[in-house]
Design a protein that fits this description.
Layout (H helix, E strand, L loop, with lengths): L5 H14 L14 H4 L6 H20 L5 E5 L4 H12 L3 E5 L6 E3 L2 E3 L1 H12 L5 H10 L12 H12 L14 H20 L3 H4 L2 H14 L4 H12 L6 H8 L16 H6 L2 H11 L15 H5 L25 E4 L7 E5 L7 E9 L2 H9 L8 E4 L14 H9 L7 E4 L11 E6 L16 E5 L4 E4 L3 H10 L10 H9 L13
Parallel strand pairs: 1-2, 7-8, 8-9, 9-10
Antiparallel strand pairs: 3-4, 5-6, 6-10, 7-11, 11-12
Helix pairs in contact: 1-8, 3-4, 4-11, 5-6, 5-17, 7-10, 10-12, 10-14, 16-17
Length: 510
């Protein structure tokens, strides 16, 4: 569904470029649909595809001496993959989002992809009938477009609009609505104007514009994956930006939008409420945006927002700064002996983002999911899923199946889950990902034993293994790195070259 609706947008852009006096050269690249690969060995290729996409765009554009690039993407990795490629090449460029999906419906409830993963847990726990489960499975995805909540695709599209690399309002449109085609056509015309003016990607993607993007990510309650991807985008754009900058922004930017996975609304509801321009207008009014950043429109952020009206009284998707969902951002960077380089906790929707409990240790996702489904995980446990990082996975697979099953069983707030892998943008709960250094690199997460005490404390920004230093030293002396899971092909190449998650899991770090 994410990518099924892209071709009409490409055709519209092609037509508009010709009409505006340009000569388009259309080409495609691969993509991975996470909804198909989730929970399988195929998910290990998902993050890898980000680099393949960036490399293929760079190769096609640079080899043919193209003057500008219009990139169209519709799901989690083709979006940052495209942006990495655009920033590397530093040509006039614009990003066109494929658009979000419209919701399915069952018994008066809006449905989206995560509804199905959570229904698996609810069915297994006896909290849902088989009839309801089958209806949710059939009705959740009724058309074309990317996952409907503020998951990774809609997070990245919103961030790209805030970054200045996409047109205002374009990031929350539904794929199947006519305005999406019109926006693709307008994007093509804007790109030609940027070519004529010599306005390039790195004129737009700067430290201040990345801070704008991250501020919007915090305001909309976006995906943990945005941390990994913006570290990589900043690297491609040669912009100084570290994992600690996310925490700096989080402390000053509130969560303003009531969006799924932990909230009530979907991206199309945000669009109807005023979209990303409305969110940015609120942030601007609070002094939380850099208004002087240039955008692909040829205008600054402040100029683009000049005529945006104040928040409408008939909507409650976007809140004013005086009445936020949360006073601070939701993507907390935790450190401690388990993750001295930093890791990412998504703390929205939690009544108390603090727990200490016994470790339940798993070296792969499948055995962890089996334990959840068998009722072996109970409230107070801290699940540890390891050897799933950039090198160990390889490819940092997402853990939506286990987290979705925990939510469905009613354990989302009472069971912790930490991993050196990633989470889906649809994940919420007591979860901590991107633990670095990863297990395969000898990080402390590799030395956790079943039953060890682990503390997750978002208030103190702490992820701690409560084992004394002498015991840790003894364990480290006996640790042996496991053999690589792949020795040939793209996964082996990724495992060999990928940097730490704390630097974006990029392949060309010096």
């Amino acid at each position: 569904p994410c990518n099924a609706g892209l071709q009409p947008l490409a055709d519209a852009a092609d037509r508009a470029i010709r009409e505006a006096g340009g000569m388009p050269q259309m080409f495609g690249t691969i993509t991975v649909t996470d909804g198909i690969s989730m929970g399988t060995e195929g998910m290990k290729y998902s993050l890898v595809s980000r680099e393949v996409i960036a490399d293929s765009i760079e190769t096609a554009v640079q080899s043919q001496f193209m003057d500008g690039v219009l990139a169209i993407g519709g799901c989690d990795k083709n979006m940052p993959g495209a942006m990495i490629g655009l920033c590397r090449m530093n040509l006039p460029a614009i990003f066109v989002y494929g658009g979000t999906i419209k919701p399915g419906h069952h018994k008066g409830q809006d449905l989206q992809i995560v509804s199905v993963f959570e229904a698996v847990g609810a069915l297994n726990a006896g909290k849902m009938s088989r009839e309801d489960f089958d209806c949710i499975e059939r009705c959740a995805l009724p058309g074309k477009g990317a996952c409907g909540g503020m998951y990774t695709a809609n997070t990245m599209s919103s961030a790209f609009e805030a970054l200045g690399m996409s047109l205002p309002y374009s990031s929350t449109m539904a794929n199947e609505d006519g305005e999406k085609v019109a926006s693709a056509e307008e994007s093509a015309r804007v790109l030609l104007e940027a070519v004529r003016k010599g306005l390039k990607a790195r004129d737009i993607v700067t430290r201040k514009s990345i801070e704008n993007a991250v501020s919007v990510i915090m305001a909309v309650g976006g995906s943990t994956n945005a941390v990994l991807h913006f570290l990589a985008i900043a690297h491609a754009a040669d912009v100084e930006w570290t994992i600690d900058d996310f925490e700096r922004v989080r402390r000053k930017v509130p969560v303003l939008c009531d969006l799924k996975p932990s909230g009530r609304y979907l991206a199309i509801d945000l669009h109807r409420a005023g979209g990303i321009p409305a969110v940015m207008k609120v942030l601007q009014g609070a002094g939380l945006l850099h208004g002087d950043c240039m955008t692909i429109t040829g205008k600054t952020v402040a100029q683009n927002l000049a005529d945006i009206p104040p928040l409408r009284a008939d909507q409650d998707v976007i809140r004013p700064v005086a009445n936020p969902m949360y006073a601070e951002g939701h993507l907390a960077i935790l450190k401690g002996n388990l993750s001295p380089e930093g890791c990412v906790a998504k703390i929205t929707g939690l009544k108390n983002p603090v727990m200490t409990g016994p470790a339940r240790v798993f070296d792969d996702e499948q055995s962890a999911l089996a334990a959840i489904m068998a009722g072996q995980i109970v409230a107070g446990d801290v699940m540890v899923l390891r050897y799933l990082g950039p090198k160990g996975g390889p490819g940092m697979p997402e853990m939506l199946a286990p987290t979705g099953a925990l939510i469905g069983q009613g354990l989302g707030e009472s069971v912790g889950l930490i991993t050196d892998g990633r989470f889906s943008g649809g994940t919420w709960g007591m979860v901590v990902g991107h633990v670095a250094p990863e297990a395969y690199a000898g990080g402390l997460i590799a030395l956790v034993h079943e039953g060890d005490s682990i503390t997750i404390d978002a208030h103190r920004l702490l992820l701690q293994l409560n084992v004394d230093d002498a015991e840790i030293t003894r364990r480290r002396a006996g640790w042996v790195r496991p053999a690589p899971r792949y020795t040939r092909g793209v996964l082996a190449k990724f495992a060999k070259n990928a940097s730490s998650a704390s630097t974006g899991a990029v392949l060309d770090l010096d």
